[in-house]
Amino acid sequence: MQPGKSPQQQLPLTAKGSRGGARPVEVGQNLEHELKRALGALPGVTLWRNPKVKAFTVEGKPILTGIAGKGAPDFLAEIRTRSGVVACVWLETKAGEGELNPDQRDWHAAAKREGRHVRVIRTPDDALEVVREFQAGARA
User: Fold this and answer.
1) For residue 1, is it within any domain?
2) 82, 136 contact by CB (below 8 A)
3) How far is CA 75 from the centre of its chain?
4) What pLDDT score was predicted for residue 6?
5) Is residue 43 pLDDT above 50, yes or no?
6) Average pLDDT of 32-59?
7) In a domain, 12, yes or no
8) What are the angstrom distances between the C-alpha of 85 and each of 34, 44, 45, 134, 137?
9) Would residue 75 count as lying in a domain?
10) 120, 90 in Cβ contact below 8 A?
11) Cα-atom radius of gyration of the chain, to the nearest Å?
């Protein structure tokens, strides 16, 4: 640790060149863990991680793993509503003042045009509010 600096002053919360999103190791995993802990035990809620990893085929062609391609959110939550219908809600996690990158903005806009539910969450409390909203049937 550098003298006179707190750990927060030494380690930026965003990756170099990013638009303010979470650094996957230092911040993103903490938010992911907190989100799983907050929502994972709730009745009627299933949380799916959407890992997007660049991989290569045997022929050397790049492919992107995960559901729904480039710009897709980090999680898909299934939330049982009061009527019994299960609503699917995409959750994009961002730390602090993090912004959506251009691919994410395009994906979110396309999803909304198709009538899909997508939210940006910054804290576990944000995610709990989304769950309460859908469980009450406000959006489903």
Assistant:
1) no
2) yes
3) 5
4) 46
5) yes
6) 89
7) no
8) 26, 10, 12, 10, 9
9) yes
10) no
11) 17
Asked whether 93 and 130 are in contact (CB, 8 A), the reply is no
Note down the domain range covering 111. Answer: 30-135
pLDDT at residue 27 greater than cutoff 60:
no
**Cα-based torsion angle of the residue sequence 14, 89, 116, 66 in order, rounded to the nearest 10 degrees:** 60
For β-strands 86-93 and 75-80, DSSP reports them as: antiparallel
Strands (E), the chain: 45-49, 54-56, 62-64, 75-80, 86-93, 117-121
What order do you get walking across the sheet with 117-121 strand by strand?
45-49, 75-80, 86-93, 117-121
The CATH code of the domain that includes 81 is 3.40.1350.10
Q: Is there a domain that residue 40 lies in?
A: yes
Number of neighbouring beta carbons within 10 Å of residue 124:
17
For the chain, how many structural domains are there in total? 1
pTM over cut 0.85: no
Question: Two tokens at 111?
Answer: 């999803």
